[in-house]
Amino acid sequence: MSIHYSRRRVLLHWLSAVIILWALASGFYVALNPVSASTQQWVGSLNVSLTTLFIPCFVWRAWLFVCEREPSGAALSLDKRLALAVHGLIYLVIGVVLVTGVLMMKSAISVFGLVRFPQPLADPVSIELANTVHTLSCVVLAMLVALHLCAVLWHEFSGRRVVRRMSFAKPAGTIQSAQR
Ligand code: HEM
Ligand code: HEM
């Protein structure tokens, strides 16, 4: 375990974690519980604004995930390859959630009332399909996040300080590559 994440990756990881955990928890809460129309309305518009703003951050983060990989000279161990595969899958599923979220919109996309993007689809069948894929990909994402958190806990309890790697603390004697 020699790599250390650059500051921008750490920042983007925690920003994404807060937004995704909030959108998953509040989205499923509202979808599965009897809530008032006003709660449904404010959670809906907050989440659409937040997650739309998150799209460029996600694109940047996915770009860094591809560009700031460990040098592929030495063969990666099996557990590192597995972690990389699960992390790659998380990125893929977040991408599907974001695209289908935009495509399922039945009105203009308003970002905190400041900017408005037109509703992309008009055909109700396509909107319904996007809605179904959005819900299913959110379920898959929630399962991947649960797996991710279990893996982090397991590493920490086995004495591997993975949370420290995903922090702003610099490891002693390590030169951070691609650092800004
Ligand atoms: C990190 C990204 C996102 C996450 C984790 C997320 C999560 C969720 C969840 C858990 C639900 C409830 C389950 C369902 O009914 O499908 C939901 C519903 C919804 N999402 Fe997303 N979403 C994300 C991005 C987006 C984006 C970018 C948009 C559109 C710009 C969007 C629009 C919607 C809409 C319109 C609903 C239905 C709300 C309602 O029926 O009241 N989502 N989302
Ligand atoms: C409180 C919640 C979370 C904690 C404590 C946490 C912790 C961590 C840690 C310690 C790492 C570094 C693992 C390593 O290098 O082996 C990591 C990486 C990662 N985490 Fe999380 N995480 C959390 C939430 C999330 C969420 C919600 C997502 C996305 C849905 C996520 C996606 C990722 C990804 C894709 C990586 C790979 C590194 C990267 O590309 O930035 N994490 N996480």
Bin the helical content. 55-70%
Tell me the Rg in angstroms: 19 Å
Q: So what's the CATH class?
A: Mainly Alpha
Give the helix/strand class: mainly alpha
Contiguous helical run count: 5
Q: Give the spatial strand order of the biggest sheet.
A: 1-2
Percent strand: under 5%
Helix and strand succession? HHHEEHH
Q: Your description of this structure?
A:
This protein has helices at 7-32, 37-67, 78-103, 124-157, 162-165; strands at 109-111, 115-117. It is mainly alpha-helical and 180 residues long. It has one domain (7-69, 76-165): Fumarate Reductase Cytochrome B subunit. The protein has a two-stranded antiparallel sheet with strand order 1-2. The chain is elongated. One protoporphyrin IX containing FE (HEM) is lined by residues 20, 23-24, 27-28, 31, 40, 44, 47-48, 51-52, 54, 97-98, 101-102, 104-105, 109, 134-135, 138.
What is the fold's blueprint, element by element?
Blueprint: H1 7-32, H2 37-67, H3 78-103, E1 109-111, E2 115-117, H4 124-157, H5 162-165
Helix pairs in contact: 1-2, 2-3, 3-4
This protein binds protoporphyrin IX containing FE (2 copies).
Could you provide a short overview of the structure?
By secondary structure, this protein is mainly alpha-helical.
